[in-house]
Amino acid sequence: MSLKLYYWNTPNGHKPVILLEELGVPYEVVPIDIGRGAQFTPDFLRISPNNKIPALEDETTGSPVRLFESGAILTYLADKHRRFLPAEGPQRYRALQWLFWQVGGLGPMAGQTHHFVRYAPEPVPYAIDRYVRETTRLYRVLDGALAHEDWIAGEYSIADIAIYPWVAEHELQRQNLVDFPNLARWFARMQARPAVQRAYARAEELLGALHASFDAEARVCLFRART
Question: Is the domain of 143 the same as that of 186?
Answer without folding.
Answer: yes
